[in-house]
Give the backbone structure.
Amino acid sequence: MDLLTLREQYLQQKIMLSFNGPISHSLIEEIGQAIRNYLNSQAATQSATMDVFSTYIELTQNISRYAAAKGYSEEQATATVAVARDEEGHYLVSAGNLVETDDGRSVLERVEGLAGMDAGELKRAYKQQLRKPREHPSDGAGLGLIDMSRRSRRPLKAKLEPLSPGQSFLCLTATI
């Protein structure tokens, strides 16, 4: 492993924190606390800290629930998470995981639909989604994507990369 090259890539991309591996609820909490502590040490605003933290939690909990629902092995349930800064000083919260390609396409469609909405439309969509009955008790009913879209300063970015027949890697990025 070439840690120097990895370090240089992290510095170049302004990655403040990253994780790659199987994700559990306790690990989600630990990394979340590390994010909060880091942002507080960097004098980030309370609002930015909460938005980054909330977005990170939403992304990682979705990955964990999805992997469990699909019965993925530990290797298949690996999450890749990164928090970085862009040139304008915004925080980029990204998370990616293995998905069934059809499920990934569905997420891409929802993200694209949300990208065209302004703040008022996102607020209405959120309230409307809250009132809809959930098909399954564990189903987030799409609230998380809407909530992340509301927090993000730019439309969410979603990318789906084929890995094998029927499976792809889905990456979502929010700009806080």
Summary: The chain has six helices and five strands. The CA atoms of residues 126 and 143 lie 6 Å apart. Strands lie at 15-22, 78-85, 91-100, 157-164, 167-175. Helices lie at 3-12, 25-41, 46-70, 101-115, 119-131, 143-151.
